[in-house]
Prior knowledge:
The complex is a heterotrimer. Chain B is an alpha/beta fold.
Amino acid sequence: MEFSQIVANSLIRGSELSLLAIGLTMVFDILKFSNFAHADYAVLGAFLAYSFNQVFGINVLISIALAAFLTGLFGIGVDRILFKRLRIIGAKPVTLMIVSMGIEIGLRNLLRLIWTSETKTYAIAITKPLEIFGARITPLQIKIILVGFLSMVAFHILLHKTKFGKSLRAISDNRMLASACAIDSERMITWMWFLACAYGVIGGTMIAMEHVLYPRLGFDILIPVFCATILGGIGNPYGAMVGALILAFAENIILSLDLSWLINLGGFFNVHSIQISTGYKPAISFLMLIVILLWKPTGILRKK
Amino acid sequence: MLKIKDLQKNFGNLRALDRVSLEVEEDSIVGLIGPNGSGKTTLFNVVSGFYEKDGGEIYFKEERVDGLTPDRIARKGLCRTFQIAKAPEKLTALENMMLAAKNQVGENPFSALFTRRRTARVEKENLDRAMELLEVLQLVDLRNEYAGDLSGGQKKLLSLGRVFMLQPDMILLDEPTAGVNPTLTMQLMKAVKELQQREHKSVFIIEHSMKVISSICDKVYVFNFGKKMAEGTPAEIQKNEKVLEAYLGGA
Amino acid sequence: MTVINFFIYLLTMVGIYGLLAMSLNFQVGFGGLINFGQVAFFCIGAYTSSLLATRIGIPLPFCFAGGMVLSGVFGYVMSIPTKSLKSDYWAIATLATAEVIRLIALNEGWLTGGPFGVMSIPQPFQSLFSRDSYAGFYLILVLVCVLLVYFALSLLSDSPFGRDVKAIRDEEELCLSLGKNTRQIKLQAMVVAGMVGGLAGALFAHYITFISPENFRPIETFLMWAMIIVGGRGNHAGAILGAVIIQLFNVSTRFIGAYVPLSPDSMASLRMLIIGLLIIIFVSYRPEGLIKEKKKVYYPKRRHGE
Lengths: 304, 251, 306
């Protein structure tokens, strides 16, 4: 495969994953637990957006906005009903994680109940892919990369130029100190959930548009999102994006590697080509996750 | 028994322990006092293996122990308590004591399954000893309560009992009376003195109360800013000008 | 299937999952080891035993033993990172590892038969029984295993080893200060749990005589978690109770499907949705589960020396 194609594919997948990773890293950092259901929130939004757009014919941007809004409310609701109470009684992060596991199973199957296991595809007109530097890329894919980039920029502006962002960073650094400075933690947490879900929904919808949408999508992208988050360092949204790009890149590179040169080294064999089977594609993110957890669990980028 | 030479521990730019040298002899009770933040608990943490040192040497019973893992140091006979008393909450007070017993049998799956008679015999011996200690500490009535349900003071007493179950050669006591009411404090210190005289071990104790120090310590070290500032008998250091200044001027 | 046969099947599966629940409970309830990759023990035990039987043809007891040993080894491997990783990171790592194992089973067809799995797995003492009574025999085999494991694990948890495991769960630093080699003890706990999980896998494989990677998806781990959450953590009887409840629920709703106007796919979704809710509700409001951890009491009424 052409190197430029690998780069293009990585940019696309990286953009999609980064939007989910940003939300996950925020929740991980501020609420101190790994939200197993995060990807499923995104998929919930993706299903909503799909229904609004493909079934009810609402304009795609409005569909996404609406879906993001509703999913944000859902995330806030779940937090209020379940996590807040556990936070107050001082439950361990592991307990929250187990509850989120329960939410993951419940939510995934709720989606399956409502929308059935049938995969959904967006009816997008098949256009001829463009050729840029030897890589074939469709206009949709270019839009995805653009949306990913613009979302990061928007997040940066949010984090540094708004009062909300400053408060968020303060809470991230030291929750008790922040509340001593009259920053309303609980309100911030509400907005944080909203933001995390909204970003997730955008990412989920893009994946749905570029590939297919099905209820188990949440669980299938959970580990890659976790991998990207931890690679970039918990609490570092820029790291989340970089981690997503690195992971996407690794996935594409490893699969296109031809290992036959290894076997042919001794000169005893003359094998044509040995490649890692594409069936292992999910394994790449799993293995990277295991490696990074064992080697450098704080991530390769330091927290800002 | 314990010899520390030029021990160094830094946290970034902060010199928590600055070339500290001191000694604790056999069969004695030595005190360690100093203002908050002077490095006392840090010293205990480094000596017991919970923190890594940045320089210096630690000798226990003539053997170098710096750099060993905490459990290995404990097995060599150098044991400690924690400033905030810890106890596994779902084990009863008696189970806590049994947990610490020295030379247990049945601590791995194989012997637990296949040497049951011997295990039961050793467990009974440990049980008797644990009950004796609980009597001394006046905790016997709480023997079947979950450790998690005990009060702070009771947990401190339990920590003391546990560390004696270990039959160590030397005990590091980290503020054993902090947060404990005066009656219980005297009870605790009486127990420490009694047990030390019975077993002839060394005790190194961090304390804030001069009353406690004077009543049980043979020798006292005074710390300030990570350095050893003074040493002597309780009477001597109480008259030491530098010590008085540190306590009145510092903290 | 006749009613009797169905009940025998149900109880056999309850027994096998009971073993898995007890294994997971030993790690989670007693050891505080949050293992999200439990299905890997199931998978390794099943594949090892069935491959040894079908590819090499060694006597079945050795196949079962092989499954248990390899699962135990895997338990050892999983315990290595527990020193350096916080529990939630370790949990994610176990989930990822279990999936990698399944993907290897799926892709390395030359070894595992790939997506087609392992077929015609021989059954122990097959020739001694008629087709009809064999199922009854196997049920007894499984129940005997469950009883043996129950007693063995009870012995372990009541022993000094069990005490150490529980203490490490609650206060690891303290245990270090008491001279316990916590890493080794956690390792031993994982090996024991792994072997029990492997036994369950072997019993499963030789019961249904056909396994494939589809049997070992992550959802199985979550079902086992539901069992110990509902039944009770830190209690062997609780694990078995949880297995009974969840399996009964799982299987009985398959039959309600005939009377309820929902497609089988929807029934399956509703089933799992309820299980998710059960997990959430129990962890939030009754974390000890239905049967609580037992307290070890010495000399309950008599005072020493009286």
